[in-house]
Specification:
heterodimer; A: Rossmann fold; six-stranded mixed sheet; 10 helices; globular; B: ABC transporter involved in vitamin B12 uptake, BtuC; two-stranded antiparallel sheet; two-stranded antiparallel ribbon
């Protein structure tokens, strides 16, 4: 494998005195689906935040396509080709569905093509077309999740980062969301996924990192990780399992 | 009946002025969660620009007022608010207070604290008759200008891409940056629009009162703040409605109170404000998304 698309090397991050990430290294290669799993407070969201520029690491390096990301402004993250769908979805609740989608294409200069993309997604998700002019805040949780994923895709990212996309969704809806994630990868977008639901994550991801206490406890191909006897212990931060 | 028309015109023109001022404050609040006290001095300085250029062609004095208010607004944002954007909201509030007092003192130092006569648009001083009632042209122009500006702003916010970005930033500032909306640009645009509104208010207000003094803006802005609070901070339509309500209320009280009670007009108005807030603490039209920025 050549140099990875995204590379995080020896990153420390903290909120005040609380250490959120400790000497954390990981990478994502082009067209992979990589998942980050771990319990609450493991540092999963902080890791995505550090990559997106929401949190500034105190130490270490993050590169995307070989270019350093640390210190770049938030609005440049998406311009470099990284889209973040944060935890809790964050639709613009008072704006209409179509306005939310147009905002997804904020960085694009090819307005016509962007509008055509929007139409294509509206065809693909008829419920969004139905609610096109209604406030996005009135969509159900699952519909909002579709909306924010589509909104993120409209920036034509090369790396899509999803933070707990199944949070608060019914199992059937979660399954749909995961089908969409697979399709996204098939369309050539690399995916970095944060999940608390380990089973879901392992089923979709090529590789998985287990985080606990701000450190990588275990990593490897998802298929092998699930079978590893040390997996549960690593997930709950009990031992320091090594799988690769 | 005829008298009623006159009263209504008065009420609407004062309400319109408060609505424009409240809107200038509300725009900044919606994207930055900042109650900008310095808005008063945007108005005052524009009024002094009119004073300084009285006698020169209308185009010049009016554009000077706009240029002064807009420049001041943009500069204030750069110098006093941008460095504090990540700071506590209270810190920014204090900063806006400091800018306001500073500009007031500079004006007193430079031009003195006494009121000076100014008549920005002399042509508007005429009156005309409708059904036997005398109506001031200025009042009608004020009402029309307020209506046109409200519609223009509505168009910008609803129909342009920058308006959309502003509304997104007002809803969820961090998320708007994550989709690529440039925070600096959106905030600068809010200050630009706010400065234009301040300049228009300066022109119409001085045309009505006929003088300018260093605390001119403060008087209007205090009423506008009351308007934003009863209308519901963070909701631009609520803010406009609040401005109309306060202005019209004040004007109607003036017209209908018995003469002995007129000196207490403002006391009665504020009593009404207190009552509204007792029953609707978030204002008459609270904004749905008035949550903290992450």
């Amino acid at each position: 494998m050549s140099t990875p698309m995204l590379s995080v090397r020896a990153v420390d991050a903290r909120y005040g005195n609380i250490v959120a990430l400790r000497d954390l290294s990981m990478h994502v290669a082009t067209n992979e689906i990589v998942s980050i799993i771990g319990p609450n407070g493991a540092g999963k969201t902080t890791l995505l935040s550090a990559i997106a520029g929401l949190v500034r690491p105190t130490h270490g390096a993050i590169t995307f396509d070989g270019q350093g990301l640390i210190g770049a402004s938030l609005e440049d993250t998406v311009r470099r080709g990284i889209a973040l769908v944060p935890e809790g979805r964050h639709v613009f609740a008072g704006l209409s569905v179509i306005e939310n989608l147009r905002l997804g294409a904020t960085i694009r200069k090819d307005t016509r093509a962007a509008e055509a993309d929007i139409q294509r997604y509206l065809d693909q998700f008829p419920i969004l077309r139905e609610r096109r002019d209604g406030p996005a805040g009135l969509l159900s949780g699952g519909e909002q999740q579709m909306l924010v994923i589509v909104r993120a895709l409209l920036s034509r990212p090369r790396l899509l980062m999803l933070d707990e996309p199944s949070l608060g969704l019914a199992p059937k809806i979660t399954a749909q969301v995961y089908d969409i994630i697979r399709e996204i990868r098939d369309d050539g977008v690399t995916v970095l996924l944060v999940e608390q639901n380990a089973g879901r994550a392992l089923s979709v991801a090529d590789r998985t990192y287990v985080l606990s206490g701000g450190e990588v406890r275990m990593t490897g191909p998802s298929a092998e990780l699930g079978k590893d006897p040390g997996f549960e212990a690593a997930y709950f931060g009990l031992g320091r399992g090594v799988a690769d | 009946m005829g008298n009623l028309l006159q009263i209504l015109v008065d009420a609407l023109s004062l309400g319109g002025l408060y609505a424009l001022t409240a809107l200038g404050i509300g725009l900044i609040f919606s994207v930055m969660r900042l109650a900008n006290f310095a808005h008063a001095e945007f108005i005052t300085c524009a009024a002094y620009a009119l004073f300084a250029l009285s006698g020169s062609p209308l185009v010049m004095s009016l554009s000077a007022a706009v240029v002064v208010a807009v420049t001041l607004a943009i500069l204030t944002e750069r110098v006093a608010f941008r460095p504090l954007r990540d700071a506590d909201q209270a810190t920014m509030l204090i900063s806006s207070f400091a800018v306001s007092v500073f500009l007031q003192k500079v004006l007193i130092f430079a031009v003195g604290s006494r009121a000076k006569p100014v008549d920005p648009i002399p042509a508007l001083a005429q009156t005309f008759m409708i059904g036997g009632v005398q109506i001031g042209v200025l009042k009608i122009v004020t009402i029309l200008t307020c209506a046109v500006l409200l519609l223009a702003l509505l168009f910008i916010l609803k129909r342009t891409r920058y308006g959309l970005q502003m509304r997104a930033a007002a809803e969820d500032f961090t998320m708007s940056r994550l989709v690529g909306v440039r925070a600096d640009a959106v905030i600068a645009l809010a200050f630009l629009l706010s400065g234009i509104l301040a300049a228009v208010v300066a022109v119409l207000y001085t045309a009505q009162t006929g003088f300018v003094q260093p605390r001119l803006g403060v008087q209007i802005v205090i009423m506008a703040f009351v308007a934003t609070v009863i209308g519901g901070l963070g909701n631009l339509w609520g803010v406009v409605a609040g401005g109309l309500l306060v202005g019209m209320g004040s004007s109607l009280l003036q017209a209908f109170l018995p003469p002995d009670l007129r000196p207490f007009r403002e006391a009665i108005l504020f009593l009404g404000v207190i009552l509204i807030l007792l029953f609707r603490p978030n204002g008459l039209f609270p904004s749905r998304g008035l949550k903290e920025r992450i």
